[in-house]
Amino acid sequence: MPKKIVLRIKPSPQKPETSPDVEVVPPTPPQEEQTVKEESVKPVEEAVTQQPVGDELDEALKMYDELMREIERLRGLDRNFMLYCIKMEELRPQLVRNILSRLAEKRNALLEKSGEVLERLKAAKEALGSEFAQVEEELIWSSIELNTMQLEKDSDSGRGVGIREELEAKIPELRKKLASLRNRLKMVEEMVKQLSDLPRNIADITTNKEEPAKLFEEIKKKYILSHGQRAEAVARAEIEKIAQQESIPREYAVILLWKSLANR
Question: What is the pTM of this model?
Answer without folding.
Answer: 0.72
